[in-house]
């Protein structure tokens, strides 16, 4: 798997937001608090805050826990192949939105204090038919041992205010002035985060203060929202209004992880909670779970105060926050991701021609069966999936005559090597946009005759202030390191030349 998860070290959140004894979420009375523990406590602190603000999130956590416990009971050791139940139960990702490069750079400083680094570039502007004018990265641990201790991630989106497809010059100017006038993070919080980076953590009292300030930064503001300005932005994009029409940022959603997202979806629906129309990402099928599947309950109406044009303050409602849940699968190689993109296009093509009532998931499962191996071994030998390899039975190694190397498939079949899947720790632009879109009240407006502002990983890295890691490089390095160790232990070179799918005999329909 992608890490060697510890059992519950990240802090096990209860349904009420409390933390079970012995978890990473309890306060430390004295001494030095390391960054991983800061991160674990931060995740639990945000979960407590969000559970108080969005009670349906507590229901989602309770149902997620029940799903995971039942899945482990039904599947035994295989249930934890992509993460121990301790890690999965503690695992969360959050999502926030900011309005400017300055705010994004401050986010990077704050999260660095918790050992969370920017990984991946996501452009949601073209990943959805709706108006979603943001580019994003995710802050998370990158080292295997840090992921094992606590894998908390925060998907962070930045408004692209100079993209003329969405904002005219006057709106851009007012947006940028509005954002520049607010303060999301106090100087004290940023200074403490910088210290945590420099010192690898903080003394207990300072750790408590950083957690207090950082958590408060993401609480829903009670300040009145200027109605006319918010409505102007909402007509363009509900996402833009949620970023640039309010006085502060907030947690947009907080996401537990489940081992069976289809079961979770059914259980939430049975409780009368309205879910989005379908699960985003790869389909559920009989083969290996890959990448990431996500779903959410629909955004709920929350009371907010508004300042009207005449200066009066009124009460109204907004629907911008929702409860998301995820099921993580196996990371794919670059070739595997290319194939995934091709299959997604094929699903769209077939769905357009399918009889009315056919679901995307049904079509996708059919396409998957035709084009993907149905076992993990098939993914490995086809060069599509990413794995960490370790020596199983060295006596089973028989170098191929004359070459001194052994094909990966032979080593796996003989048991000389064991393949452990690397967990996909990141996100999918189309799925993220799909979640956003499913929770919008309308599609907003965009003028595709205008040119969009170009963004890529390098340009967003300049905004963040440090290089954003390419997740493909991180996964490939894990696999390469494990192969080098295995070759040294076996005394043989491992031939990882991809085997064509037609020769694996793993991709036949079940």
Explain what the structure shows.
The chain has helices spanning 35-53, 55-75, 85-90, 101-112, 144-149, 169-180, 187-199, 204-217, 227-236, 238-244, 261-270, 334-353, 360-371, 376-381, 408-414, 429-438, 457-464, 471-490, 501-504, and strands at residues 32-34, 92-98, 117-123, 134-140, 153-159, 201-203, 225-226, 253-256, 292-297, 302-307, 313-318, 323-328, 387-391, 405-407, 417-421, 493-495. A five-stranded mixed β-sheet has the order 3-4-5-2-8. Strands 7-10-11 form a three-stranded mixed β-sheet. Strands 1-6 form a two-stranded antiparallel ribbon. It is α+β, with helices and mostly antiparallel strands and 510 residues long. Strand 10 and strand 11 (313-318) form a beta hairpin. The chain is built from 19 helices and 16 strands. Helices cover 43% and strands 16% of the residues.
How much strand content do the residues show? 15-25%
Report the mean per-residue pLDDT as an integer.
88
Proportion of helical residues? 40-55%
Question: What is the straight-line distance between the termini?
Answer: 25 Å
Report the major sheet.
5 strands, mixed
CATH topology of the domain at 33-331 and 429-460: 2,3-Dihydroxybiphenyl 1,2-Dioxygenase, domain 1
Query: What is the CATH class designation of the domain at 33-331 and 429-460?
Result: Alpha Beta
CATH superfamily grouping of the domain at 33-331 and 429-460:
Uncharacterised protein PF07063, DUF1338
Rg (CA only): 24 Å
Give the neighbour order of strands across the main sheet. 3-4-5-2-8
> What is the number of E strands?
16
What is the name of the CATH architecture of the domain at 33-331 and 429-460? Roll
Approximate shape: globular
Number of helices: 19
Spans of at least 5 consecutive residues whose pLDDT stays below 50 are 1-29, 506-510
**Class inferred from helices and paired strands:** alpha+beta
